[in-house]
């Protein structure tokens, strides 16, 4: 049994896996109380391996380690971006500067596709990364995520006032909330269409807002992308692979 943890900027996602079987899964914030709700005392004693991929601050990393140590004496292993894993090769000259979540998602994608592909991770930030047929990472993009876009409008202006929530649709808005949320929806569609024009390789999508990108890509008729698939556990899949080495 192993515990896999993906600590993103919004949420910490974890899974207890036995081989490839997911025994238990959860997601929470460090502040929300019982992060590992559902893992019993006996199960904690049965976990010989704990692997973590984090993009949080060093302070938050230490705090997460402290929380885990409250449950078990099993050492916590942190995994970071490396220059290569098998044939997969990182595009960054300094791999330590690339988010571990992006790298582990690429490891998961490369393992599944074994060929040219792209990963879209729509989390707090939206990241898009490409791999060529030989496993060379070609680089990527980092964009603000959905909640970050609306939060930044709220924080950076005095009179863009709107309640939390969502508004479906992409028609030009006629209230502030519509202008904001329809704007984000419109941009999501534009992003999907640009991806469909730029890419002619399988695209694996992950992250809390992944289904919105998937829907937008599915709705784009002229897309050149041969496969669009949601892989909610892609970071943990990659983490399991690097941890098993
Ligand atoms: N239960 C949830 N809690 C928080 N955000 C969620 C949830 N479900 C979907 N989301 C959306 O997913 C985004 C965060 O995705 P996630 O992949 O968890 O981010 P990260 O990996 O950066 O922590 C948020 O911007 C929000 O729009
Ligand atoms: C881009 C990210 C913020 C995405 O993290 P997330 O939205 O999943 O929390 C993270 O991968 C990160 O902090 N990267 C470091 C900079 C880089 O990848 O170049
Ligand atoms: K993520």
UniProtKB/TrEMBL annotation:
Substrate binds at residues 92, 99-102, 176. It comes from the Bacteria. The active site is at residue 101. A monovalent cation. Ammonium or potassium. K(+) binds at residue 121. SUPFAM superfamilies: Actin-like ATPase domain. It is found in: Cytoplasm. Gene3D superfamilies: 3.30.420.40. Its EC number is 2.7.1.33. It catalyses: (R)-pantothenate + ATP = (R)-4'-phosphopantothenate + ADP + H(+). InterPro entries: ATPase_NBD (IPR043129), Type_III_PanK (IPR004619). Pathway: Cofactor biosynthesis; coenzyme A biosynthesis; CoA from (R)-pantothenate: step 1/5. One of its GO terms (molecular function) is pantothenate kinase activity. It is an enzyme of class 2 (transferase). Its main location: cytoplasm. Belongs to the type III pantothenate kinase family. Homodimer. Catalyzes the phosphorylation of pantothenate (Pan), the first step in CoA biosynthesis. This is Type III pantothenate kinase. The gene is coaX.
């Amino acid at each position: 049994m192993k515990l896999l943890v993906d600590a993103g900027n919004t949420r910490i996602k974890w899974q207890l896996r036995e081989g490839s079987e997911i025994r238990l899964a959860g997601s929470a914030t460090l502040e929300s109380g019982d992060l590992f709700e559902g893992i019993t005392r006996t199960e904690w004693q049965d976990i010989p391996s704990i692997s973590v991929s984090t993009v949080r601050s060093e302070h938050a990393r230490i705090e997460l380690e402290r929380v885990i140590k409250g449950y078990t004496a099993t050492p916590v292993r942190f995994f970071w971006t490396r220059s290569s894993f098998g044939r997969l090769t990182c595009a960054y000259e300094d791999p330590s500067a690339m988010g571990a979540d992006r790298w582990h998602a690429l490891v998961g994608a490369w393992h599944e596709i074994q060929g040219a592909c792209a990963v879209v991770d729509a989390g707090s930030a939206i990241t898009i990364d490409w791999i060529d047929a030989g496993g060379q990472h070609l680089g990527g993009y980092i964009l603000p995520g959905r909640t970050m876009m609306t939060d930044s409008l709220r924080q950076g202006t005095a009179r863009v006032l709107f309640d939390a929530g969502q508004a479906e649709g992409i028609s030009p808005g006629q209230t502030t909330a519509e202008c904001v949320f329809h704007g984000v929806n419109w941009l999501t569609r534009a992003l999907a269409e640009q991806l469909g024009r730029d890419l002619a390789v399988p695209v694996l999508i992950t992250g809390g807002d992944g289904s919105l990108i998937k829907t937008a890509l599915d709705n784009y008729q002229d897309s050149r992308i041969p496969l669009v698939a949601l892989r909610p556990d892609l970071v943990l899949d990659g983490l399991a692979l690097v941890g098993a080495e």
